[in-house]
Structure formats: C-alpha cells, structure tokens
User: Fold this.
Amino acid sequence: MSSNEPVKSSMTEKVLSELRTAINNGTLIPGQFLTEKEISEKYNVSKTPAREALGILCQEEILNKMPRKGYIVKAFSLEEVINLIRFREGLEMGIIRLAIKFATDEELDELCALADWSIDPEDPEFSRRYSAYNLDFHMFIARLSKNPYLISAFENTMIKLRSSLVSGGQRHTASDLQVHVDLAAAMKRRDVEEACRIESDDLENSIARM
Assistant:
C-alpha cells in the first residue's frame, strides 16, 4: 500500500459523510444533478475521492450514475418508499431486540433523555427539525444494537427514506414526539414486545398517511 492510500481513504470518507449529511438535511434533493468536478471543488478534494464517494452512493442506490454526464440523487416511487418502510421495519425489530439485550442501563437512560425533546408543533420549521431529530433518535437506537452490519444497513435505509419523505413534504405532529417517549420508556423497561409494537404501529401509521 502506498503512503498516500490512508490519506485518499480519509478524503473519500470525508466526502461521503458530507454528501450523506447533505441528503439527510435536504440540501441535496431527489432529481438533483451532480458531477465529480462540482463535488471535488465543493469539498476541496481531488476528483479521485469525489469519484469514489459518488460511486459508493451509487452502490448503495442513493445516487444513479449517468455515463459520461454525472450523477442524480435517486427519486423513489411511492411503492419503493413503502417497500423501504417495510424493510426498515424488519431491520428495526431486530435492532430493538438487540439494543434491549446489549444496552447498559446508562445508555437506555440516555435514550430516554433524547426522547424528551420538545418543539412547538406550530413552529413553521417543526417538520424539518423533527425529521433531523427523528434520524438522530433512531440511529442512537441502532448503535445500541452493537451490530455494525445492522447499523450500516439501517443508516442506508434511513438516508433513502429521509431523502424521499423530506422532499415529499411529509408533515409531522406533536403525537410523533410522544411515540419516541413511549418507545424509549418501553426499552428502558426492557419490554421487547411492547417496544416492537410501538415502533411497528408508528411505521404503519406513516404508510397510512401517504
């Protein structure tokens, strides 16, 4: 391995992280066109790490490559979004079970503290802020599973869903906040069945609202 390989890998990870964040916060939206030149200039890296990061997102089906032209942030159909939610449900049931099994009491206390988040539902920025918080909350649970494969698969699924739901203008209400409180409380009690029921019902409600 050449001496510059670790540097190249580090720069690729930096660009990849920045692109995922941009998709998560709605800066990059479905249908948006990207080029290697644009990304390398934006993040002040050479074209190689830009190309590698964009290629990884293509492999993860977050971007589509247009040969000799560039890349497009993938837009998912309603059917695809529903299938992603169903896939997320399968992942999250396993994540919740492992998190309850392996998380310490202190980590579950942290989860309950994270669930105790409030913002005025009348705030015009409520849905956008809720969406960002929702991602943080569920990724926290994923990390409690202590399983890197589940964490990676779940993050990839959440990026796809968040990109589609944010751009689609999905609205949230105060009741969505209560779900987090109830879920965290059930996990704190280490009640696997109740925690899985709460999350499954919430995802079913998400589908019903589409």
In short: The chain has nine helices and three strands.
